[in-house]
Amino acid sequence: MADKIKTVVVLIQENRSFDHMLGWMKSLNPEIDGVTGAEVNHAVAGDASSPAVHFGNASQYVDPDPGHSFMAIYEQVYGDPYTWGSTAPATKPGVPVPPMSGFAQQAEKEKPGMSATVMNGFRPDAVPVYRELVAEFAVCDRWFASVPTSTQPNRMFVHSATSHGLVGNDKNKLTAGMPQRTIFDALHDAGHSFGIYYQFPPAVLLYRNMRQLKYIGKFHAYDLDFKRHCREGKLPNYVVIEQRYLDLKLLPGNDDHPSHDVSRGQRLVKEVYEALRSSPQWSETLFVITYDEHGGFFDHVPTPVDGVPSPDGIASDAPVGFAFDRLGVRVPALLVSPWIEPGTVLHRPSGPEPTSQYEHSSIPATVKKIFGLKEFLTARDAWAGTFESVLTRATPRTDCPETLPEPVPLRATEAEEHRGISDFQAELVQLAAALNGDHATEDYETDRLVEGMTVAKASEYCTSAFDRFREVCQRCQECAMDGSYVPELPPPTPSAPSSSKLCGCFPCFRA
């Protein structure tokens, strides 16, 4: 594969299921395992006499955010509630094929009337960028979230094939930084390059290794560098796009997380694609677009429970004790390259194991194969299906569209930047507190830090913290600190030296 692909670009959007975003693409290509409108949940899961909620095509702007915690997802896929602290197994025994029957029931518990929200999807014309990519390249209709839970554990799997036991927001672990080896480490050790192009302080810094001095130069401001690097043919081997996770009036969120307008996400995908398409590296590029998890939206394909291996034998903390033996709900996945035939549909993989599936660990597994890396990261990417088989052409296409359709805004109002932050956004604030040194103060409490914090304030805080961390890293490099060093900043105080006068190394802090 290295003779075809030398650059893999990855964009992970937020909180939408396959049926919700791409299910109605079946009307354009019947080979896609999408929806017809016959799909149904009942108000009481398993009770056919209760009101039926059929899947529709009326999705536009979604607010508020549906439930997508571990407990909520259990109810969505099995139809039965899961109680926190319960002694019941986290994977329901004797149910090899989850019925996917509890989406409407669980949504009504979140908010009356929300069942209509989760039981609807977008018409192809409402997501015109995806409509074009589905027609011109490949869609995978058997790609699942790695874990049946919320954002961060699934994002961990994208680059490390494990969440190291995380199924929720563990403040201490996230602040310290997750300790597992990543695909970034594997690429670096093998002499390959990578780059993080960020529009917001990057979430990959939740991996502790990514805070090392040797990696600080891998972080690039998207707006300053991405198009230029595309134009100059300077993209590294592995590219990660980190989008805007906060929704501001001047800089609206473009990660597709409710309550953000998905037209902004469409615009981001269009922008990335068009920059890649015009790059001299286009003929050697594979662009992967998927979503971290389904966000509580309905999907009709049963989540896999058969033969799913634990990545590393680490179970989640009590009371759940999840063994990582089932996947999450199906999510959208698009594969874009001039080596792909138009209208390709990728179904279930043929291996490496009889039970293998496409899931987020398929990304490091495929990157390993493309770049000839020596070892898998965990047992999960060793098991996950790889998708290089989609590159079927003997020569790259020359007829790929140069531009994609212009998205139409789906939200009539401007961003509500003074609303409170979501759980995911609170996790990013926790990360910022760790980078900034605020977590080291005696009276630091995460809940107190984020209590009452608005989106606008969170953006200001996170941006300032990341800027300070980068400045300190640069000072550490000037002090010739070892590349594996992770700066630990003291909390900023009016009397403390500024980051322009000290670095994050211990001798400087003592001085």
UniProtKB/TrEMBL annotation:
<dbReference type="GO" id="GO:0009395">
    <property type="term" value="P:phospholipid catabolic process"/>
</dbReference>
<dbReference type="InterPro" id="IPR007312">
    <property type="entry name" value="Phosphoesterase"/>
</dbReference>
<dbReference type="InterPro" id="IPR017850">
    <property type="entry name" value="Alkaline_phosphatase_core_sf"/>
</dbReference>
<dbReference type="GO" id="GO:0042578">
    <property type="term" value="F:phosphoric ester hydrolase activity"/>
</dbReference>
<keyword id="KW-0378">Hydrolase</keyword>
<dbReference type="Pfam" id="PF04185">
    <property type="entry name" value="Phosphoesterase"/>
</dbReference>
<protein>
    <submittedName>
        <fullName>Uncharacterized protein</fullName>
    </submittedName>
</protein>
<comment type="similarity">
    <text>Belongs to the bacterial phospholipase C family.</text>
</comment>
